[in-house]
Design goal:
By secondary structure, this protein is an alpha+beta fold. Helix content is about 30%, strand content about 40%. It has one domain: Cyclic phosphodiesterase (Cyclic Phosphodiesterase, Chain: A, Alpha-Beta Complex), CATH 3.90.1140. Helix 2 packs across helix 3. Hydrolyzes RNA 2',3'-cyclic phosphodiester to an RNA 2'-phosphomonoester.
Amino acid sequence: MRLFLAIDLPSSLSEDVAAVQELLSDADSLQFTDPEQAHVTLKFLGETSPDRLDEVEDAVEDALDAAAVDPFDASVGGLGVFPSLDYIRVIWTGVTDGADEMTRLHEALERETTALGFDAEDHEFSPHITLARMNDARWKAHVRRVVEQEAPTIGTFRVREVRLKKSELGPNGPEYGTVARFSL
């Protein structure tokens, strides 16, 4: 199964995520994420045998103990893109307050999971929620203009747990399910 570790946004913010996506709705070439499934990925694990779930869960517990992060408030807003405004693949909204805590969690999870043989991240961690993916450049100028001119606020929520999640690809995009929850 395809696994990752994440912090889910509460469903109370899904309408706010959808409102920000609406700013980009004129761009036909965008593939929008489901606002009900909005999350911050802390560590992508990839294809993982179910036989490894116990060791993964133990590693997550060890990482959270090492990170020593108590429940905290996180604020989400603004717009950005990966990898750059010249070559847009992903449009995201970022984490402002709470980014330091999420980075500490990511670093601890990275240490523990790479010790198990999972691939190390090949880019700097930047806590964000993916809003859409761009499949072609026809609407690049429009997306760039929105990203440069808009600074939406999605909201603030209390982070109390990290979730081990699975991703299953379906006809309407990925569907995420929670495999395990880990309290901070």
